[in-house]
Amino acid sequence: MRMTTTTMTYTNILVEKQETSPGSGIYIGLVALNRPSALNALNNHLMQELVEAMQAFDKDDTVRAIVLSGSERAFAAGADIKEMADETTVSIMSKDNFATWDRVKAVKKPIVAAVSGFALGGGCELMMMCDMIVASETAQFGQPEVNIGVIPGAGGTQRLTHALGKYKAMEIILTGRPMTANEALQAGLVNKVVPVELYLEEAKNLAIQIASKSPVATQLAKEAILKAFDGSLDDGLRFERKNFYMLFSSEDQKEGMKAFMEKRKAKFVGR
User: Which residues pair with residue 42 across a beta bridge?
Assistant: First the structure.
């Protein structure tokens, strides 16, 4: 028998509820990033829709766990650089778009990320805001912001360091190089790596296992684990955000993002 699904309509994401077994009345919420022409780059509209869908699932007592995915080619290749390229320190601080990201962090129900292809920059940061990560063999993870003259601004310097340790995080963030799925598994960044044709089903199966448990217990367990993990994270996030904003006063940020859009190598001048 097929499990019941309920579908909701958005512009930049695909959202549905899937019953864990026929007639159970217990569901997992499925959210898929859906900007294929931009490799699921995270623009402000997508993030607003993502928060809206996540919060709706958080309030729905029939939904016990959430799966966040992209496509086989890309979970999310990064933030939408076109939205940021012309910002200044003052303008980007005043818009405070990261407040939307904070609302994802506030979701109480367990979130499983299903990751295939690119999970870079903001995509990697969004993935790390989830509670468990199932990756396909083709997944690539990284924080390449240094290549366009900035640093991670949505938690990358903090969460990656918590996950990998100081030395590995330094290497990944300061070189901008991607990690393979197996390297991420060995480093403890993901829960499991499976063939590409199985990654989404494996993530759903993990969510279904969680959905079968007490929703009160799973939510309180998540809260307690995050309390241990996030010890000084908020201070780190504020520090990271300040440094991210400051970089929008640099010539290197303007050159890096302009070069990215013009598909050429950036010429950084160190100011």
Answer: 79
User: Among residues 95, 153, 118, 128, which one has the least CA distance to residue 38?
Assistant: 118
Q: What is the pTM of this model?
A: 0.88
Number of domains in the chain: 1
Residue 268 counted as domain residue: no
Domain that holds residue 70: 5-261
CATH of the domain at 224: 3.90.226.10
Q: pLDDT tens per residue, the chain (271 residues)? A: 345 555 567 999 999 999 999 999 999 999 999 999 999 999 999 999 999 999 999 999 999 999 999 999 999 999 888 888 888 889 888 888 888 888 999 999 999 999 999 999 999 999 999 999 999 999 999 999 999 999 998 999 999 999 999 999 999 999 999 999 999 999 999 999 999 999 999 999 999 999 999 888 898 888 888 887 776 778 888 888 888 888 888 888 998 999 999 999 888 877 8
Q: Packing angle between helix 156-164 and helix 233-246, nearest 10 degrees?
A: 130
Listing DSSP states for 12-38 in one string gives SEEEEEEESSTT---EEEEEEE--GGG
Residue numbers annotated as active site: 79, 122, 125, 145
Per DSSP, which regions of the chain are E strands? 5-9, 13-19, 27-33, 63-69, 74-76, 111-115, 118-120, 132-136, 140-142, 179-180, 192-194
At 129, which amino acid appears?
M
